Input
Amino acid sequence: MITFAIDPGTLAEDSQYAAKRAAKGEGPGLASRFRADEPIDDVDLATLLLSADVATDELWEIARASRPAGVPKVETFSPLYFTNECDGECKMCGMRRENRALKRETVDAATICDQLDVLYRRGIRGVAVLAGEYRLGPQRDAMLARAAEAMRDAFERGFAHVLINVGSLEAQEYDRFLAGIPRSPDCVISPQITMCTFQETYHPRIYSKFMGSRPDNPRSDFDRRLVNFDRAVDAGLRSANPGILLGLNSDIGYELLALCAHVRHLEARGMQVYISLPRLRKASGAEHFAGLSDDDLVRMVSLLTARFPAAKVVISTREAPEIQRRLLPILGVLTAGSPGVAPYGEADARFEIEASQFEVADQRPLEVILGECLASGAIIDGYEPAEKMSPAVSAT
Ligand code: SF4
Output
């Protein structure tokens, strides 16, 4: 099986071509074709993204029509960071190694279990286990072992979906990470484990600008990260979460084209794909780079939702309530929670930016956020509100 690769020169040319077509007014005709379910290609999609004469609401409507009929149905999970230590040097991230302003914290396995128990009591049934990325050596081995233990602890407690966001892994690291996890006869991992590695930008030069280029920086290797999901498939995983950090590259047509190619590749390899579209946010000790406008975010989400009906677009509560509400009917996943380290209490969470990866816009308790979605008629997979739980679970 061929591993994923991109040709940055071709992507840049295709994005420029899409911009020219948008300027010539080809957008409305493409929107009509898209709405009528006629075939369009990725360059057509980028043209729609860049077409000022195609209203964002029209793209939203096309996306809505592509979703199952009836009330919005989304999935949820909550992030759980067990450390904010990292050997990466990503300029936009509060956890970067050189950031002296960040208050460093790492919690032990018992605290992770307590946090899983708290999330479970609060009704959450999907959890993303997060850490930094580490140079080869004992700290990397220890952090990966702790993440693997957290994953096992989550499944033991009844979580249905565990996402792993600890950087890209080598083949032998996958084998250790997944040792003992049940597999089907064809060696595919049975519980739902999703590997998360956002490329952030598919443009190698911009990637180096933000993620660095020193060989001892574990995050600096663009190509190694790009094929992480291929190693994950080979290791037996069938769920992947790529993503772009909107705001790093102003050429959003380029990023859309690259992401489409990546999603298509992963689906061809048999993966369920979760597409994350976080916007750049303020972070401890980092320059505040501008993100993307609300409108452009809605256009991106709409186009990807309509283009890949089997994939799930993920938006987090790093977004404010108004934009969550606007996107909910076309989303696959809305995540609620904090990027702080072991931040959860029985009814709240800590959100200090001086100890977190980035700033979160919506700091309401997750029950309020998800409760609002339920009250609007949405169905949420991965959340069991307290009043619906069995008395035995509520009381533990
Ligand atoms: S983005 Fe990830 S790898 Fe980079 S500094 Fe932040 S936590 Fe580390």
In short: The chain has one domain: 8-395. Residues 86, 88, 90, 93, 95-96, 132-133, 219, 357 surround iron/sulfur cluster (CB under 6 Å). Residues 8-395 form a domain with the TIM Barrel fold (CATH 3.20.20.70). The longest helix spans residues 138-156.
